[in-house]
Amino acid sequence: MNYQEKLAGIRQAMKNDGVDAYLIPSSDPHISEYVPERYKCLAFASGFTGSAGCLLITQNHAQLWADFRYFVQAEEQLAGTGYELVKLKVQHAPEYIEWLGGQLPAGSTVGFDANLISVHLTDLLFEQLAAFSFKFHAADYLDALWANRPVLPSAPAFLIDAEHAGASAAQKLAAVRAGMAKQGVTHHLVSALDDVAWLFNLRGSDVSYNPVVLAYALVSPNKATLFIAPGKLSDKDIDTLHLNGVETAPYTAIGESLGLITTEAKVLLDPKKTSYATYKHILGAARVVRNSNPSTLLKALKNEVEITNTRTAMIQDGVAMTRFFKWMEENIGKSHITELSAAQQLEDFRAAQPDFAGKSFNTIGGYRAHGALPHYSATAESNSTLEAGGFFLVDSGGQYHYGTTDITRMLALGELTDEERIDYTLVLKAMIDGSTARFPKGTCGYQIDAITRQPLWEHAINYGHGTGHGVGYYLNVHEGPQVLNPTNVTIAIELGMITSIEPGIYRPGKHGVRIENLVLTVKDTVNEFGEFYAFETLTLALIDPAPIKKELLESKHLKWLDAYNQMVLEKLSPYLSPEEAAWLEHKCYAYTIA
User: Fold this and answer.
1) CA 248, CA 198: separation in Å to the nearest integer?
2) Which of 20, 133, 210, 465 is the most exposed place for a label (fewest CB within 10 A)?
C-alpha cells in the first residue's frame, strides 16, 4: 500500500464517521518526542521521518505542518505522497488550529487518536474552536491500514543502583511527595517516560536512543505504583523497588487504577506530557490539577554523583571524537568516505569506550549543502561522498554508564571559501558568548538565547532553532524544563542544570555551521547586587582554530578558545596513545590565535 492509498483509506474512514478533519501528531501515549516503532505514525502515513510535526487531513487537503528544521527534508520526503508541507512560523506552535477555524464550516468535526494527543493540545483545540461549534471524535484510523504494525517493545528493563544515580527511588519519591504537598494534591500521575525512569532509577531500550521504558507511575502520600509490562524487570529489581516502597502493576492496568480514584481526590498531572486518552480515565471523578511534574525540575538539577559521572562520560566521548577527527584528516581524499560511513566510524570509536551504551540520537552528518539542514539524516539516497574540501557538520552524541553527551563540530576537509570561514568564526563567537555569560539568579533561557544570538544579529544573521536544551543523565538527550530559545518560557536556569549551547548559520544550497558544547550551571559570585551564576563547559573535544578569521574575534574570544583547547588536551591526553596526544597537541597549537 503506497502513501496515496493510505491517504485514501484514512479519508474513507473519516467519511464513514462524519469526520471533516483528522490530526496525526508525532507522538505516542506518553507524548514522547522519540517514539517506539509502533507509534511512528507520520512515517507510516506520509513517509516523513522527522521527530516533530503534525499531519492534517481533510477531504480536499493533506498537509504536514513542520518547523524550520525539517523544511527541506519534508519537501523531499513528501514528494508524490499526496501531502504538502505547511511551514510553521513558530517552532512547535499548533498553527493548524487557526487554519481549521478559518477553513472548515461551523459545526465541523475534528478527529484524532486520543492516545497520541496531549491534554494541553486538546485544551487548545476545544478553546480555540469553541466559537465555531466544532465537535470532536476520537478514533485511530491507521491501525486498520497498518499491516504487520509493530507490537510494543518487550526487551528487558533494569534498575541502576543508588550509588550511580546519586539517590534512591525512596529518596526521589520523598522529594516528589514534597512537591505534591505544596500543590495540595492527593495523587500524582506520571506519564512522561523520562520522568518515570528518573523517579525509579529505571532504564531500558523501548525507544531508540533514549534509555527509557514504557511505563506509568501513580503516586499518593502512602503508595507508589509502577505500571510496567510483566516480565520486563527481574525478581531482584522488583524486590529492590519493594524495599523502596514501590509496588508494580501491569502496564495496561493504568486506566483501571485511575478510574478507581475517588471523587474526593485531587490528581496532579502534566497536561503537556499526558495523553487525552489517559486523562479521560479520571474525568468526572477526581479533581485534576494541571501543572508540571515535580520530577521534571528535580531531574534537571543534577546531583554531585550525576555531575561527576557526566564528566567521566565527557572524557570518553572526547577520546572518541579525537580519534574520529584524526582518522578523518588522515583518510579524506585517500579513501572513499561518505556521510553514512563517517557516521558509522564515529559510532565505532564511541563503542570502543568502556562505558558506551549506545548513541543518544541519530547522528546528523551533513557535508557541504547538507549541513544547512539542521536535522538532516543521511539516507542511502542522499548519502554524499566526502571530498577534500568544504565543511562536514557532525552533530552526534552517546549514552554512557553513566552520562549523556551531545556535541556538534565542524570538520574542515580542505580548502574553505571566505564565507565559510566567516560563518564559522561568527558561530564560534556566539557559542563563546553564550558559554561565558555571567547572569543573575533567576535568569531565564530566553535571556541567554539573546546573549548568544547577539554576535550574529550584529551581521543581520539569525537561525530558526533554539540555542539550547536540557540534557539528561543517561536519559533523554532533550530534557526539560529549561530551554534556551526566544519564547518567553519563565523557567530559570538553575544550579546543576546541564544545557546545550548550539548557535548556527545555515545557507541553503551552500553550507551550514553549528558548534555545540554542553554546559553546567555553577555559582559565580555574590555581591550587593545579588547572586550570580555562570557556566562550566563540560564537553571535551577540539574546536579547530584553523578556519577562524581572527579579525572577527575579540581578544577574550581568542583567549577562551586557547584555554578551552588546552583544557581538552590536558584532560584527554592520559587516555590517548602518544601518537594521538601528539596529533591533538599539534592541532591545538598549529595556529597561533591568541
Assistant:
1) 16
2) 133
